[in-house]
Amino acid sequence: MRVQILQGVDVAGEAPGLMADAGLVLVFASRNTLIGSTTVDRIRHAFAGAVICGCSTGGQIAGYELHDEDAVVMALRFDHSQVHLAQEDLSGPGSSRACGEALGSALSRPDLAGVLVFADGLCVNGNELVEGLATTIGQDVVIAGGMAADGEAFASTVIVANDIVASGLAAAIGFYGPGFRMHTGIGSGWQVFGPRRRVTRADGNRVYELDGEPILDLYRRYLDDEDFAGLPRAGLLFPLQISSGEAPEQTAIRAVLGIDRDERAMIFGGDIPVGSIAQLMRGTSERLVDGAAEAAAHALDGSSIIDASATAAILVSCIGRRLLMGSRIEEEIASVGDVLEEIPRAGFYSLGEISPFRGTRRPGLHNETMTVITLAEEA
What we know:
Number of strands: 26
Distance between the termini: 10 Å
Largest sheet: 8 strands, antiparallel
Radius of gyration: 19 Å
Helix content: 10-25%
Shape: globular
Number of helices: 9
């Protein structure tokens, strides 16, 4: 496998030695770049025979750098593996499981070795999308990816799927062949604080009450006037850790994506069932940097990388981490690079990360994590 990372003017096909025979091209860019310029058309022209897929972001990662204006492209040429792209419409969160099942059915083959999925981050129930995929293709296939973002606007995100650039869409890439390898690692760095509270009223990813108290009132106690007026953005700095009473050791982080002031409810990046145990979380830049490095180390666990230049790493980190770290955000990108070293890297800041839970092959939606996905071929 050969990997090429492009950014800025290089994306337009002006880079010397452009890998025009790539089989897969991943593109990450701002929403305005994807829908308001000729960037995608020029990528299609430069890589005429490739599957092209990607999404809008909260910032693009290339190597050790973060970009807000320049598009970032990862081009992959496979020696032995094949790829296939499937896309499905998302009419809203309620269609997410059916969408995942349809994607899984379109990709399902005996030699399916991995799935990389991107979805509109503002009209999807990530849990249901992943469950639909996993139910259809089984638990033995690694599923990873992320949810599109639109910076800090929380207004509209878009997906790129070959000739389509649109909102309300999910796209999944299937990788096929006995030599294809996908590994993942996740890390957070957030810490819980305050009492454990039980979710007493919720519907899907919409939470109304914790311990019988409106959840919006709870957040009001922890945010100052300016941050409270700026919800949901400020809510990303205080995610929830969720666990069930039956399996308290299995935890997930849920980020705030929206609020309903009339209902005094909050909308999160994934389902939060009634009866779950919830705790508020907060982080520091230092802890988040350590969590990112931990994700990279876990992605390398169990992999047998012989040629780093022939391996690709995709970084999917939550926009909430960027909001907390501010001008220090490149420190977490650098911490991943210090672990992965010569492995080519590209990625984006997201509204949700998809990866197996640590120590299992069971995929799930995560929020506020750094997720590292490695792709490689073995002869």
